Amino acid sequence: MASVTATQPRGFVAQLNGRHHRAALNVFLVVVLAHWAEHLVQAYQIWVLDWPRPKARGVLGVWYPWLVTSEWLHYGYAIVMLIGLFLLRPGFVGRAKVWWTIALAIQFWHHIEHLLLLLQAQTGHNLFGKPVPTSILQLAFMRVELHLFYNSIVFIPMMIAMVLHLRPNRAEQQAMECSCGQRSRVTATAAATA
């Protein structure tokens, strides 16, 4: 088995978590923040503007109402989040990797909930005797509040991971192989030589 050298091409995931890690994290963060904006606008429509819940559709849902009721859209976002968290995980080390893994685990469950909703919508057989597709935790919480909660408990550890990743301690900095640590390594080298 030949060892990988600097001249051999690296795979997609290795490149994503190496020289393209910072750019990939930035793109992923834009997607996450756009999704957050939709949920926050929907919450504003419900609790500040006092719109009826079926009319509170977020930004895109006002123009394209079918988007909010499409389980494919919600499942699609859940799977994009899951894939993004999974693919970008190898670039993290130390404390940041722990927090990123927590976000990944929570998103995995969130994805399962959306998969249940999608399957019910596609088959026409709703669980728990409900008239509409219902996830497990929807038995205890309303859907808007539940999704704000899910997005929060995925977003918070993800952001903690990003902050720790961009501000690594010395041991983490030495273990980092991605583009995110280059600036930190240059700063540490400059401080050591000064």
Main attributes of the structure:
194 residues, elongated
Beta-strand content: under 5%
The helix fraction, in percent, is 55-70%
Q: How do the SSEs run, as a string of H and E?
A: HHHHHHHHH
Cα distance, first to last residue? 44 Å
List how many beta strands DSSP finds: 0
- Count of distinct structural domains: 1
- Summed over residues and divided by their number, the pLDDT gives a mean of 88
Shape: elongated
Question: Strands, helices and their partners?
Answer:
Layout: H1 12-16, H2 21-47, H3 58-63, H4 65-69, H5 71-88, H6 94-123, H7 143-166, H8 170-175, H9 180-193
Helix pairs in contact: 2-5, 2-7, 5-6, 6-7
Please explain how this structure is put together.
The chain is elongated, with a radius of gyration of 20 Å. Helix 6 runs antiparallel to helix 7. The N terminus and C terminus are likely disordered. The chain has one domain. The protein is mostly helical and 194 residues long. The protein has nine helices and no strands.
Quick gist of this model?
The protein is mostly helical and 194 residues long.
